[in-house]
Write a structure and sequence with these properties.
The protein contains no helices and seven strands. It is mainly beta. The strands form three sheets. Strands 1-4-7 form a three-stranded antiparallel beta sheet, with no helix packed on it. Strand 5 and strand 6 form a beta hairpin. The chain is globular. The termini are close together.
Length: 58
């Protein structure tokens, strides 16, 4: 489980506009090997695509 700390603006995928359906502060379940892990100011974050989010918990 992860908490969303930031959300991008969405965009175009395969010619279709993708609107973001998740918001900052929500808790989500993501695919096990999804995303890219990064460290920023001693904090660890995982950057994932919206399609890698399996469920919104809250």
């Amino acid at each position: 489980m992860a908490e969303i700390v930031a959300v991008g603006p969405g965009g175009m995928v395969d010619g279709n506009e993708v609107e973001m359906t998740v918001k900052e502060g929500q808790k989500v379940i993501i695919a096990k090997y999804a995303g890219t892990e990064v460290k920023l100011n001693k904090e660890e974050y995982t950057i994932v695509r919206q399609s890698d989010i399996l469920a919104v918990v809250e």
